[in-house]
Amino acid sequence: MSEPEKRAETAAEQVTQLVELLDVETIDVDLYRGARQPGGVGRVFGGQVIAQALQAAQRSVEGKDAHSLHAYFMRPGNEDFPIIYRVVRDYDGGSFANRRVIALQQGVPILNMIASFQRPEEGLSHQADMPDVPGPDELRSEFELREEIRDHVPERFRPFFLRPRPIEIRPCSPRNWFKPEKRDPVQHSWFRTAAALPDDPALHRAVLSYASDMMLLGTATLPHGVNWMTRGLQSASLDHAVWLHEPLRADDWLLYTTDSPWAGHARGFNRGRIYSRDGRLVASVAQEGLMRMREG
Questions:
Q1: Is 213 an annotated catalytic residue?
Q2: Active-site residue 55, yes or no?
Q3: Which stretch of DSSP H or E encloses residue 291?
Q4: What's the rounded Cα separation, in Å, for the pair 52 and 25?
Q5: Counting CB atoms within 10 angstroms of each CB, which of 29, 109, 188, 219 has the fewest?
């Protein structure tokens, strides 16, 4: 098997694992179990908890599509345990429905989320224009960029740094992981799943929500010349909101443009807009995260 064929096979396996990860198991009425990330160690990725919580909420609604979610992270998830999702049916109206989701590990809440659903309808429309940036075909993937510097990565970090991922990312302005320089708090990246997804709109919304927690928190660090590899920097998502505007495919290229208008008091605020390749604004995102520099 050639090297490109091996990479394609690995990508397909990674995406299959992602689909299975987000396919929450029904264990009772409005009670679901989220699987563990295969090979995951340490803290659970926040996007996984958001996406699984959204999938649990979507299972309890018929005839309406998710259009927004607002989540608060309370405790870091532990990869050693599955996550239980309890759905509360707060409201079912003619046009809208609301669901509250509590994510628990070992009986302790780690995330609270509210999701809103709407019956499809037409209305007045406008949108912000898509930024003028290079297309994904002109850019290298983040995996290729990481491979270039593998010899500079401490050996104990290489498996995590170089592991295959189900989401392919192509940054328009790649960052220097080892010598970050101060720059404006704006960045643009293309992303999509590394292989095709099933034709399930609810799954595509969940995958977008999963990926929306990538590339966002670090935007607030850009003006300060630090990143997640900087010694002493403690960072974590505190809350996360997604507004789903238009139908989308998460296995086709999406442009994630992010900016950070403010940081202070050990917190950074970040905003994101997600566009389809044909220029439709398909989602908006906002997040506040912990951004604390520890001395010593």
A1: yes
A2: no
A3: strand 281-293
A4: 10
A5: 29
